[in-house]
Amino acid sequence: xxxxxxxxxxxxxxxxxxxxxxxxxxxxxxxxxxxxxxxxxxxxxxxxxxxxxxxxxxxxxxxxxxxxxxxxxxxxxxxxxxxxxxxxxxxxxxxxxxxxxxxxxxxxxxxxxxxxxxxxxxxxxxx
Amino acid sequence: xxxxxxxxxxxxxxxxxxxxxxxxxxxxxxxxxxxxxxxxxxxxxxxxxxxxxxxxxxxxxxxxxxxxxxxxxxxxxxxxxxxxxxxxxxxxxxxxxxxxxxxxxxxxxxxxxxxxxxxxxxxxxxxxxx
Lengths: 127, 130
Hints:
A: about 130 residues, 3 helical TM bundles of succinate and fumarate reductases, elongated, B: about 130 residues
């Protein structure tokens, strides 16, 4: 038997060419972690509302600043991406859409849908 | 092609348990909360969009509507539960020191519980407060 150290390894992350499937997969995890961090913002907003008009005014001012808006836009995209790709995952869990052609089609659709939904949401919110 | 989807060994079929020793419980709850979060998060986004520019009083009136109060609490419950299940998997995957893995998972779960309860309390205070 070949010694353990000489056995062929699966391709290492750093030399394996990124593919749509692998990139979307890690972005799903990344957006999930980011959204969990974004929950701190939700807690803060609700606590400010429960504290009173002054605290809520401060929260609204911070969220309304340009940096607040950038973070909220990122939050919006992360939410829509995780939502759309999550639905894609639920179809896979049901055993549907697992052939490579459909996996790529649904992957591009998820990407397009989350970008469009983010911009539409902000367009409706600001106009 | 039903048999193609059967990845479990016979002994696992019988025990219903995987490497985490709790079977499909974690996996299943992650899916249940995900399904709940589809309509709930779309509802939240639509509500927040309609609340843009609203002052303190209008937001309070919005939260006080019984439907909104209940949906917000459902949303908070599903969100925090889904988040802590997901973060647990991430920590299990990337933290390789056993004691650190266990400690970080427990701390993360405590944090999620405290923040989730704080959010529910905030909603109830606004909803029921005088």
